[in-house]
Automatic annotation (TrEMBL):
It comes from Rhamnusium bicolor. It comes from the Eukaryota. Keywords: Cuticle. This is Pro-resilin. The lineage of its organism: Eukaryota, Metazoa, Ecdysozoa, Arthropoda, Hexapoda. GO terms for cellular component: extracellular matrix; extracellular space. One of its GO terms (molecular function) is structural constituent of cuticle.
Amino acid sequence: MLCKPKSYEFGYQVKDDYTGTNYNRKESSDGNQVRGEYRVALPDGRIQIVTYWADWQSGFHADVRYEGEAQYPEQYTKSGYNNNGGYNNGHDNGGYSSGGVSHQYGPGYNSGMIYFI
């Protein structure tokens, strides 16, 4: 016996000014079609907005748009990324150690940003 899908609605928001985290999502379904939207603050200062809908017959459909204009810093500092394509730990060694034991630590796992793919 097949059961009819139930309708639902949910949403959430995460905003942390200290880390720069800012995203939200809302979704609803009438039992046949799912509709939703999520917004993510991107590292370049824009807001990515994805509006989507899906059903069993036509599959998933998404409209992706952006608010704002991308902003890029003039120059990265020594503790940022270098032009060599690797991470610069502040020493002029191209981001690589000269061998031996390293006690240098990079940024933590919680970068404060979330990306939806």
